Amino acid sequence: MLTKLIPPPVALLIGIALAYALAAGWPSATLDWPWLHWLAWAFFITGGMLMLAAVFSLWQAHTTINPIHPERSRHLVTSGIYRLSRNPIYLGDALLLAGVVSWFGHPAGLVVIGAFVWFLDRLQVRGEERALTQRFGAGYSAYRARTRRWI
To answer: Is 9 a residue whose pLDDT tops 90?
Structure first.
């Protein structure tokens, strides 16, 4: 499993590095729109709040936050922010990356966001879904039926 080699936090750092490299290596394509920094802050704050709400929900349920070992989950968390999204931490990560891309103002950074979301969706989330289905059975299947994967 590639995500055991590149866990989601590391993938986020790689995405941030790529966004920076694009802006630094191809500065002529950078947009200098003053409102981009405001947009970046909106993404940073929203992403950070989502992640904090998710971590708090997991902490309250006394279950793992470790994305490498979803099979270690002790409880299925479906309340709090998890009522709205099955993956609020990853959504928060994507919003943080969108904030970085907005801050640097490089349009090619949108490709980095797309690649990051694809990586998480295909190589992390689907594996977690298999593990949680095995662990929680019909309870997780019902949760999947009523709650969207992302938003």
So the answer is: yes
* CA pair distance 94, 65, nearest whole angstrom: 17
Give the structural domain span for 125: 35-146
- Residue 92 tokens read as 């928060």
Using one digit for the tens of pLDDT, what is the confidence trace for 129-146? 999 999 999 999 999 999
Q: Could you write out the three-class secondary structure of 53-111?
A: HHHHHHHHCCCCCCCCCHHHCCCCCCCHHHHCCCCHHHHHHHHHHHHHHHHHCCCCHHH
Q: What is the DSSP letter of 125?
A: I
Question: For the chain, how many structural domains are there in total?
Answer: 1
24, part of any domain: no
For residue 30, tell me if it sits in a domain. Answer: no
Which residue, 33, 23, 28, is CA-closest to 101?
Answer: 23
List the structure tokens of 18.
């790529």
